[in-house]
């Protein structure tokens, strides 16, 4: 019979390393049903019958964070045969706090103490035998990194699973124990014995998820409530806090005598590094240098070269022409060849072109993440980002988005606070991604003599859009929800573990290919059809001989009216380009080349009647409006809610329209040929935005 | 009432009580900030917030507005 082991532990305890060491390549990565938390499962290298489930890294089993709820639902509902609890030996108290909660579940627990080498190096001592006796679980000393003790830990877990003996629970203080006994008697007596304790303690804590699940009768609840209130009055604290206090006290007690800490007050290696890295004066300069290097290597120099190679050479010169020749030679009709090469293959190309660049970016970021620097980044930047309704952790999504918005949006997952994460998702798309740079180049080349100021202003615009949107959004009622604390561990620095890094890089890169690829190819086919079919006299295929207006052109003409107030609605090309931009932003440039015959810059110039203002307005709209379909898909995934996703995309479009309107109308007015109605509208928009920016933050009054 | 927010950098304090309620309080306590625990205030971030604490042998960062909930001796 197969055995299921749940791997549970704090973040930064080495859980991932242990999981990789135990399962090797036998892994399956997915998602927990209904949420965006990653689920990893694998089979033991040494014993294929044993399934190891990697639960999210958590500090507790509270009902508040997504990860904790996912972990405890799995443990309570699926009841694995044994819990393998990885504990960071350098951080015993806080790690064992989770252990106390695991033991209560009534599932057998085996503790694997990791990083013992560092404990010993620090001169500290842990009496494993004594600790094991006191806590009532088997303990194995391991080094996940070196792989020592790892198989032994798995063997013992299997052994304990077969014995089916849960660890003995410990006792709370008299009054609490009394109340819990009452609750056990009154509410959970019908349950299997080993599960009663956990439910009783949770009822005592007034855990909202458990109370919902049990749906106790009203009289029972009132009766229990009396017991709880009695304890609360006696100990002058709320029930939840009482339990947490007692758990920590219990750990402090059992550690007395079996944990000997010599290193108290001495600076560790990590502290020494932090004296420089998070130093008041040096922190920001160091941060800027590191991020510049990351950006320069991945997006700038090497990354840029790979994108150029992939798009222009590999796909542009080799693969696409080769596919065309191949399908023409085997006798396919012209339209089919065009559909395959332009619709499908070039869609793939658009996605794959960014892969090497993103892989380099992911690689560098996972190195920074793995060694512990990323939490320092959040620590350094939190104050600044908080002003815009974001958190210190919003920086990473924004940085990734300079390469591509899809992984940028996906990176927002690490932000715990719901509000901060949503605003991050809504604004990350404003950052000019790699695919938007050709648009910037086009506008600069066609109308501004190739001035570098255009690119600078585009990035400034992106950052400003993030800041302005953040401030406006955080003040709206939508984000009035519960404020969450920013409580973050600053883990010890360690040398990056290369297997972890390569794995993370690969998982992220592959995730991008799967997600972006499927959306872009589907969208590419649809747009290709719109571009090549005409409905003049019934649906027919457009060739060079037949000519005629494509559906896209008709659509462009219809849509272009909307863009008149923005200055680029006189011709249909800009509208078509904007629509195509939804497939992939670099498509925007191609439109002016193909639709205007030949040179893109010339076509662009003609389409906008040579107006610099209209060109600027066009660029701004295309940089800020709804992102490409792939990014919209990412928004949908991360928001995990249709309404929020639609709202986010609508917000981006409206915001882009408003900014372009103001640029074009005020610009025209200043240059002396303004339109009265247009200027009035733009002024109304400007006043509204200023009001939204500077009004009082009502959400703040409600905070604590 | 003296709170963790008022403690000077480089000082060690003992927690008296946690104020506030619900998710925020729970989260802070889960991280080991409980009654009686000793906290060393290590530093403040370059922009003046959050602060870095050392407690129970590890480093924790906390925003000042959250530190205000922690009453200290």
Span between termini of chain A: 52 Å
Q: Would you report the number of β strands of chain B? A: 5
If interface size is counted as residues with C-beta under 8 Å from the partner's C-beta, which chains form the largest one?
A: A-B, 48 and 38 residues
User: What is the overall pLDDT average of chain B?
Assistant: 92
Number of domains of chain A: 3
Give the key terms.
heterodimer, A: 704 residues, alpha/beta, Rossmann fold, Helix Hairpins, 3 domains, seven-stranded mixed beta sheet, 31 helices, elongated, B: 73 residues, alpha+beta, SH3 type barrels, five-stranded antiparallel beta sheet, 18% helix, 37% strand, globular
What does this structure look like?
The complex is a heterodimer of chains A (704) and B (73). Chain A is an alpha/beta fold and 704 residues long. Chain A is built from 31 helices and twelve strands. Chain A is 63% helix and 7% strand. Chain A has a seven-stranded mixed sheet, with helices on both faces. A two-stranded antiparallel sheet of chain A has the order 7-9. In chain A, a hairpin with a 6-residue loop joins strand 3 and strand 4 (50-54). Chain A is elongated. Chain B has 73 residues and is α+β, with helices and mostly antiparallel strands. A five-stranded antiparallel sheet of chain B has the order 4-3-2-1-5. At the A-B interface, helix 3, helix 11, helix 16 and strand 10 of A face helix 1 and strand 4 of B. Strand 10 (487-489) of chain A pairs antiparallel with strand 4 of chain B, so a sheet runs across the interface.
């Amino acid at each position: 019979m197969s055995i299921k082991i749940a791997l549970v532990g704090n973040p930064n305890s080495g859980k991932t390393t242990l999981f990789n060491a135990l399962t090797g390549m036998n892994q399956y990565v997915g998602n927990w049903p209904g949420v965006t938390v990653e689920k990893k499962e694998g089979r033991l290298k040494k014993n294929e019958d044993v399934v190891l489930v990697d639960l999210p890294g958590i500090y507790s089993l509270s009902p508040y964070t997504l990860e904790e709820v996912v972990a405890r639902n799995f443990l309570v509902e699926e009841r694995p045969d044994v819990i393998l609890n990885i504990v960071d030996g350098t951080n015993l108290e806080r790690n064992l706090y989770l252990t106390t909660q695991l033991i209560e579940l009534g599932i057998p627990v085996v503790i694997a103490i990791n990083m013992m080498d560092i404990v010993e190096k620090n001169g500290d001592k842990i009496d494993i035998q004594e600790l094991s006796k006191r806590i009532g679980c088997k303990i194995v000393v391991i080094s996940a990194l070196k792989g020592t003790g790892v198989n032994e830990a798995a063997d013992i877990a299997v052994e304990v699973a077969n014995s089916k003996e849960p660890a003995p629970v410990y006792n709370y203080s008299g009054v609490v124990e009394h109340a819990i006994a009452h609750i056990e008697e009154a509410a959970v007596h019908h349950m299997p014995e080993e599960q009663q304790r956990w439910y009783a303690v949770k009822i005592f804590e007034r855990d909202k998820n458990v109370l919902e699940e049990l749906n106790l009768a009203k009289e029972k609840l009132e009766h229990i409530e009396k017991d709880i209130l009695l304890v609360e009055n006696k100990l002058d604290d709320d029930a939840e806090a009482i339990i947490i206090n007692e758990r920590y006290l219990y750990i402090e007690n059992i550690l007395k005598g079996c944990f000997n800490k010599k290193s108290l007050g001495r600076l560790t290696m990590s502290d020494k590094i932090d004296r420089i890295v998070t130093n008041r004066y040096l922190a920001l300069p160091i941060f800027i240098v590191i991020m510049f290097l990351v950006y320069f290597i991945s997006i700038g120099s090497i990354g840029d070269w790979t994108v150029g190679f992939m798009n222009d050479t590999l796909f542009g010169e080799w693969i696409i022409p080769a596919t065309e020749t191949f399908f023409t030679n085997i006798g396919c009709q012209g339209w089919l060849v065009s559909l395959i090469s332009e619709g499908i293959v070039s869609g793939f190309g658009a996605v794959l072109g960014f892969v090497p660049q993103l892989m380099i970016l992911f690689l560098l970021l996972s190195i920074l993440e793995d060694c512990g620097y990323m939490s320092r980044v959040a620590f350094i930047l939190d104050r600044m980002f908080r002003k815009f309704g974001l958190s210190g952790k919003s920086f990473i999504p924004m940085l990734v988005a300079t390469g591509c918005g899809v992984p940028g949006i996906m990176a927002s997952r690490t932000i715990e606070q719901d509000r901060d994460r949503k605003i991050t998702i809504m604004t990350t798309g404003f950052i000019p991604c790699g695919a938007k740079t050709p648009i910037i180049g086009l506008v600069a080349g066609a109308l501004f003599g190739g001035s570098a100021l255009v690119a600078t202003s585009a990035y400034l615009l992106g950052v400003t859009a993030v800041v302005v949107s953040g401030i406006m959004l955080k003040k709206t009622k939508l984000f009035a929800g519960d404020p969450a604390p920013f409580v973050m561990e600053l883990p010890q620095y360690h040398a990056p573990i290369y297997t972890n890094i390569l794995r993370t890089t690969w998982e992220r890169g592959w995730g991008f290919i799967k997600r972006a690829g499927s959306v872009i190819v589907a969208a590419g086919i649809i747009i290709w059809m719109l571009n090549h079919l005409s409905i003049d006299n019934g649906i027919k295929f457009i060739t060079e001989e037949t000519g005629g207006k494509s559906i896209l052109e008709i659509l462009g003409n219809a849509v272009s009216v909307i863009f008149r107030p923005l200055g680029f609605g006189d011709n249909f090309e800009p509208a078509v380009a904007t629509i195509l931009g939804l497939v992939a932003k670099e498509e925007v440039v191609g439109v002016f080349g193909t639709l205007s015959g030949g040179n893109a810059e010339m076509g662009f110039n003609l389409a906008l009647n040579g107006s610099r203002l209209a060109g600027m307005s066009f660029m701004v709209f295309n940089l800020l409006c709804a992102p490409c379909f792939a990014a919209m898909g990412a928004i949908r995934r991360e928001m995990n809610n249709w309404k929020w996703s639609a709202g986010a995309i609508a917000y981006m479009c409206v915001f882009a329209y408003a900014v372009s309107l103001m640029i074009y109308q005020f610009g025209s007015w200043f240059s002396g040929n303004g339109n009265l109605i247009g200027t009035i509208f733009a002024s109304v928009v400007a006043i509204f935005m200023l009001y939204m920016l500077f009004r009082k933050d009502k959400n703040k009054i409600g905070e604590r | 009432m003296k709170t963790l927010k008022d403690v000077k950098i480089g000082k060690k304090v003992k927690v008296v009580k946690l104020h506030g309620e619900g998710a925020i309080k729970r989260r802070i306590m889960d991280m080991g900030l409980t009654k009686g625990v000793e906290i060393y205030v290590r530093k403040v971030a370059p922009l003046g917030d959050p602060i870095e604490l050392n407690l129970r042998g590890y480093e924790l960062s906390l925003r000042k507005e959250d530190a205000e909930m922690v009453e200290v001796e």
